[in-house]
């Protein structure tokens, strides 16, 4: 059983399009996250949700919107894609806020042409 | 910024040798974690050390934390080719909510 699963694994699209990446965790965790990893491997937090409530939102363009239908899911929707959005996006979860160990999905590689 | 920074950026060793990676950070923390990332995969948690701890062991891994120097080290003993990966430190602080801040990582290559 995959603990944190995200789909799709690969996504190639044109500038200006809208796309979504889905994430589900079956660990019963209360907190979920989206991280962006750029070509230099830097990992930046984008969003985190705790019990469906947005806790932190770093300086991310409002073209990015997280949506959490329930605490097991945190989807990432991106509007009007730009070249600079090309990256690998990782979903993660943890038992609770500040309780350590993050469990990561396998990543979704987004390429914007 | 409390971002951790790993040092060195890249490390290449022979199988059987020990590998040491360092992490420095800027602000006070509650805990520090180390993660491994194999190429094309997600990050996997290795070990967490709390701010009131100085050393932790897990199998061939040894992590130290020096809060006075704001630094941590990860030692992998008797390295294997399968240890080839990128290693990241991540700091957690109650002052930053759930913002576990990752450094840029150390790319470790273990040559057979």
Describe the structure in your own words.
The complex is a heterodimer of chains A (113) and B (112). By secondary structure, chain A is mainly β. Helices cover 0% and strands 51% of the residues of chain A. Chain A contains no helices and eleven strands. Chain A has strands at 4-7, 10-13, 19-25, 31-37, 43-50, 53-57, 64-67, 75-78, 87-94, 103-104, 108-112. In chain A, strands 2, 4, 5, 6, 9, 10 and 11 form a seven-stranded mixed β-sheet that branches. In chain A, a hairpin with a 7-residue loop joins β7 and β8 (75-78). Chain A starts with a strand and ends with a strand. Chain B has 112 residues and is mainly beta. In chain B, 0% of the residues lie in helices and 54% in strands. Chain B has strands spanning 5-7, 10-14, 19-24, 31-37, 43-50, 55-58, 61-66, 71-76, 85-92, 101-102, 106-111. In chain B, the strands form two sheets. In chain B, strands 2, 4, 5, 9, 10 and 11 form a six-stranded mixed β-sheet that branches. The interface between A and B is medium-sized, with 28 and 25 residues.
Write the topology of this structure.
The complex is a heterodimer of chains A (113) and B (112).
Chain A: E1 4-7, E2 10-13, E3 19-25, E4 31-37, E5 43-50, E6 53-57, E7 64-67, E8 75-78, E9 87-94, E10 103-104, E11 108-112
Parallel strand pairs in A: 2-11
Antiparallel strand pairs in A: 1-3, 3-8, 4-5, 4-9, 5-6, 7-8, 9-10, 9-11
Chain B: E1 5-7, E2 10-14, E3 19-24, E4 31-37, E5 43-50, E6 55-58, E7 61-66, E8 71-76, E9 85-92, E10 101-102, E11 106-111
Parallel strand pairs in B: 2-11
Antiparallel strand pairs in B: 1-3, 3-8, 4-5, 4-9, 6-7, 7-8, 9-10, 9-11
């Amino acid at each position: 059983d995959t603990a944190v699963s995200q789909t799709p694994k690969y996504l190639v699209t044109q500038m200006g399009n809208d796309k979504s990446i889905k994430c589900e965790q079956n660990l019963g965790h209360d907190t979920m996250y989206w991280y962006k990893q750029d070509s230099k491997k830097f990992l930046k937090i984008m969003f985190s949700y705790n019990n469906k409530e947005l806790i932190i939102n770093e300086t991310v363009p409002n073209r990015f919107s997280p949506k959490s239908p329930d605490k097991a899911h945190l989807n990432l929707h991106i509007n009007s894609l730009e070249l600079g959005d090309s990256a690998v996006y990782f979903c993660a979860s943890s038992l609770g806020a500040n309780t350590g160990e993050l469990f990561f999905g396998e990543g979704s590689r987004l390429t914007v042409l | 910024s409390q971002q951790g920074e790993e040092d060195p950026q890249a490390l290449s060793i022979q199988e059987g040798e020990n590998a040491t990676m360092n992490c420095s950070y800027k602000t006070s923390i509650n805990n520090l974690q180390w993660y491994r990332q194999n190429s094309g995969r997600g990050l996997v948690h290795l070990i967490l050390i709390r701010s009131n701890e100085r050393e932790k062991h897990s199998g061939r891994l040894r992590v130290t934390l020096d809060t006075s120097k704001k630094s941590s080290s990860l030692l992998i003993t008797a390295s294997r080719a399968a240890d080839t990966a990128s290693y990241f430190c991540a700091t957690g602080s109650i002052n930053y909510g759930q913002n576990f801040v990752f450094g840029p990582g150390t790319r470790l290559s273990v040559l057979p």
